[in-house]
Write a structure and sequence with these properties.
This protein is mainly beta. It has one helix at residues 3-12, and strands at 17-18, 23-28, 33-40, 42-46, 52-56, 63-67, 77-83, 89-91, 95-96. The strands form 2 sheets. Strands 1, 4, 5, 7, 8 and 9 form a 6-stranded antiparallel beta sheet that branches. Strands 2-3-6 form a 3-stranded antiparallel beta sheet, with no helix packed on it. A hairpin with a 5-residue loop joins strand 7 (77-83) and strand 8 (89-91).
């Protein structure tokens, strides 16, 4: 956590905003996005306007990992939002998807 490393991460967009939940891993593949996070109630995949998909915590199971849903095709970018049991949120930076994938 040196000044140089923090500024480097900011310039690369390698950071997220949070009120409490934590992204532990965001892995972007050619047609996939996989995340690991602290336990949350919802993982919201958002693109333009109100277009998106929400993965809900299953009864008696923690939600600590999620993948971009196969049927959800974001347009240009997707932003991931985590919501924990207290309603606190975390937001990823936009992840830009390739043109052919966003049809």
């Amino acid at each position: 956590l040196t000044r140089r490393s923090v500024l480097s991460a900011l310039k690369k967009g390698a950071f997220f905003s949070t009120q409490g939940p934590v992204f532990k891993r965001i892995e972007v593949g050619e047609h996939t996005i996989d995340i690991e996070c602290s336990p949350v109630q919802q993982v919201r995949w958002r693109t333009f306007g109100k277009v998106g998909y929400v993965e809900y915590k299953k009864k008696d199971a923690e939600l600590t990992a999620c993948s971009l849903p196969q049927g959800f095709q974001p347009r240009v970018f997707v932003r991931i939002e985590l919501v924990d049991a207290e309603g606190k949120k975390a937001w990823s930076n936009p992840i830009f998807v390739c043109r052919e994938y966003s049809r």
